[in-house]
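Researcher: Re-running this chain for the archive, since the previous output was lost when a drive failed. Same request as before.
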Amino acid sequence: MERMYAPWRFAYVTGEKTESGCVFCNRLECDEQENFVLHRGDHWYLILNRYPYNNGHILLVLGRHSATLAGCTSAELAEMGNLLSVMEKALLEAFQPQGINCGYNGGQSAGAGIPEHLHLHMLPRWSGDTNFMSTIGQTRIMPQTLEQSYERLLPVVRRLIVDS
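Model: Regenerated C-alpha coordinates:
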Protein backbone atom coordinates (compact mmCIF):
# COMPACT_ATOMS: atom_id res chain seq x y z
CA MET A 1 0.00 0.00 0.00
CA GLU A 2 1.27 3.46 -0.92
CA ARG A 3 1.13 6.31 1.56
CA MET A 4 0.76 9.94 0.64
CA TYR A 5 1.86 12.58 3.11
CA ALA A 6 0.74 16.21 3.13
CA PRO A 7 1.92 17.57 6.50
CA TRP A 8 1.39 21.17 5.37
CA ARG A 9 -2.40 20.51 5.55
CA PHE A 10 -2.40 19.47 9.24
CA ALA A 11 -2.99 22.97 10.63
CA TYR A 12 -5.77 23.51 8.09
CA VAL A 13 -7.68 20.28 8.78
CA THR A 14 -7.34 20.60 12.56
CA GLY A 15 -8.43 24.23 12.56
CA GLU A 16 -5.16 25.44 14.10
CA LYS A 17 -4.32 29.01 13.19
CA THR A 18 -0.96 29.33 11.52
CA GLU A 19 -0.93 33.13 11.52
CA SER A 20 -2.61 35.97 13.35
CA GLY A 21 -5.06 38.36 11.76
CA CYS A 22 -6.94 37.98 8.49
CA VAL A 23 -5.07 35.77 6.01
CA PHE A 24 -6.39 37.88 3.12
CA CYS A 25 -5.47 41.23 4.68
CA ASN A 26 -2.04 39.76 5.47
CA ARG A 27 -1.56 39.21 1.72
CA LEU A 28 -2.29 42.82 0.76
CA GLU A 29 1.42 43.51 1.18
CA CYS A 30 3.61 40.43 1.05
CA ASP A 31 6.22 38.62 -0.98
CA GLU A 32 4.15 37.81 -4.06
CA GLN A 33 6.05 34.72 -5.19
CA GLU A 34 6.23 33.22 -1.70
CA ASN A 35 2.48 33.73 -1.27
CA PHE A 36 1.48 32.84 -4.86
CA VAL A 37 0.00 36.28 -5.68
CA LEU A 38 -0.65 36.38 -9.42
CA HIS A 39 -1.83 39.99 -9.80
CA ARG A 40 -2.72 43.08 -7.75
CA GLY A 41 -5.40 45.34 -9.15
CA ASP A 42 -6.88 48.58 -7.85
CA HIS A 43 -9.45 46.80 -5.65
CA TRP A 44 -8.79 43.06 -5.93
CA TYR A 45 -5.89 40.66 -6.10
CA LEU A 46 -5.51 37.18 -7.60
CA ILE A 47 -3.83 34.48 -5.55
CA LEU A 48 -3.57 30.72 -5.70
CA ASN A 49 -5.61 28.96 -3.06
CA ARG A 50 -3.16 27.50 -0.54
CA TYR A 51 -5.60 24.62 0.07
CA PRO A 52 -6.82 23.95 -3.49
CA TYR A 53 -9.55 21.61 -4.68
CA ASN A 54 -7.60 21.21 -7.93
CA ASN A 55 -4.37 22.49 -9.42
CA GLY A 56 -4.86 26.04 -10.67
CA HIS A 57 -7.49 26.94 -8.03
CA ILE A 58 -7.41 30.76 -8.04
CA LEU A 59 -8.97 33.16 -5.54
CA LEU A 60 -10.09 36.67 -6.41
CA VAL A 61 -9.83 38.59 -3.13
CA LEU A 62 -11.27 42.01 -2.37
CA GLY A 63 -8.64 44.38 -0.95
CA ARG A 64 -10.75 45.29 2.07
CA HIS A 65 -13.23 43.66 4.41
CA SER A 66 -16.72 43.27 3.01
CA ALA A 67 -18.78 40.14 3.36
CA THR A 68 -21.02 40.50 0.30
CA LEU A 69 -21.13 41.55 -3.31
CA ALA A 70 -23.83 44.03 -2.29
CA GLY A 71 -21.21 45.75 -0.14
CA CYS A 72 -18.97 46.43 -3.16
CA THR A 73 -18.71 49.73 -4.99
CA SER A 74 -19.42 50.06 -8.71
CA ALA A 75 -15.68 50.32 -9.39
CA GLU A 76 -15.00 47.16 -7.38
CA LEU A 77 -17.71 45.26 -9.24
CA ALA A 78 -16.40 46.43 -12.63
CA GLU A 79 -12.86 45.32 -11.82
CA MET A 80 -14.19 42.04 -10.45
CA GLY A 81 -15.87 41.29 -13.78
CA ASN A 82 -12.70 42.04 -15.74
CA LEU A 83 -10.55 39.91 -13.46
CA LEU A 84 -12.99 36.98 -13.55
CA SER A 85 -12.64 37.03 -17.33
CA VAL A 86 -8.84 37.06 -17.03
CA MET A 87 -8.98 34.16 -14.56
CA GLU A 88 -11.11 32.08 -16.90
CA LYS A 89 -8.90 32.78 -19.92
CA ALA A 90 -5.75 32.01 -17.92
CA LEU A 91 -7.09 28.70 -16.64
CA LEU A 92 -8.26 27.67 -20.10
CA GLU A 93 -4.89 28.49 -21.64
CA ALA A 94 -2.63 27.18 -18.90
CA PHE A 95 -4.47 23.98 -17.97
CA GLN A 96 -6.85 23.15 -20.86
CA PRO A 97 -9.58 21.97 -18.45
CA GLN A 98 -12.82 20.34 -19.58
CA GLY A 99 -14.81 22.71 -17.36
CA ILE A 100 -14.53 25.49 -14.80
CA ASN A 101 -16.20 26.13 -11.45
CA CYS A 102 -16.61 29.72 -10.28
CA GLY A 103 -18.38 31.10 -7.23
CA TYR A 104 -18.27 32.35 -3.70
CA ASN A 105 -19.65 31.18 -0.39
CA GLY A 106 -21.71 34.00 1.11
CA GLY A 107 -21.68 33.50 4.87
CA GLN A 108 -20.50 30.78 7.22
CA SER A 109 -23.59 28.60 6.72
CA ALA A 110 -22.87 28.66 2.96
CA GLY A 111 -19.39 27.27 3.59
CA ALA A 112 -17.33 30.46 3.77
CA GLY A 113 -14.12 29.79 5.67
CA ILE A 114 -13.49 33.54 6.04
CA PRO A 115 -17.01 35.01 5.80
CA GLU A 116 -16.04 38.59 6.63
CA HIS A 117 -13.65 38.96 3.68
CA LEU A 118 -15.21 38.57 0.24
CA HIS A 119 -13.35 36.26 -2.10
CA LEU A 120 -14.37 34.29 -5.17
CA HIS A 121 -13.09 30.89 -6.29
CA MET A 122 -12.35 29.77 -9.83
CA LEU A 123 -10.91 26.37 -10.57
CA PRO A 124 -10.36 24.14 -13.56
CA ARG A 125 -12.18 20.81 -13.71
CA TRP A 126 -11.62 17.54 -15.55
CA SER A 127 -13.86 14.52 -15.89
CA GLY A 128 -11.53 12.39 -13.76
CA ASP A 129 -10.75 14.86 -10.97
CA THR A 130 -13.29 13.42 -8.56
CA ASN A 131 -12.59 9.81 -7.81
CA PHE A 132 -12.56 7.31 -4.99
CA MET A 133 -9.77 9.16 -3.16
CA SER A 134 -11.94 12.27 -2.79
CA THR A 135 -15.17 10.39 -2.21
CA ILE A 136 -14.05 7.64 0.15
CA GLY A 137 -10.61 8.64 1.36
CA GLN A 138 -11.38 12.35 1.88
CA THR A 139 -8.04 12.98 0.15
CA ARG A 140 -7.19 14.96 -2.96
CA ILE A 141 -4.42 13.89 -5.26
CA MET A 142 -2.64 16.98 -6.55
CA PRO A 143 -0.49 16.27 -9.62
CA GLN A 144 1.35 19.60 -9.26
CA THR A 145 2.79 21.60 -6.40
CA LEU A 146 1.57 25.15 -5.75
CA GLU A 147 4.91 26.38 -7.06
CA GLN A 148 4.39 24.54 -10.36
CA SER A 149 0.84 25.90 -10.74
CA TYR A 150 2.09 29.41 -9.97
CA GLU A 151 4.90 29.16 -12.54
CA ARG A 152 2.41 27.96 -15.15
CA LEU A 153 -0.22 30.64 -14.47
CA LEU A 154 1.86 33.75 -13.71
CA PRO A 155 3.11 34.54 -17.24
CA VAL A 156 -0.33 33.89 -18.71
CA VAL A 157 -2.09 36.15 -16.19
CA ARG A 158 0.50 38.90 -16.70
CA ARG A 159 0.07 38.78 -20.48
CA LEU A 160 -3.73 38.75 -20.26
CA ILE A 161 -3.76 41.73 -17.84
CA VAL A 162 -1.65 43.75 -20.28
CA ASP A 163 -3.92 42.73 -23.18
CA SER A 164 -7.17 43.56 -21.35
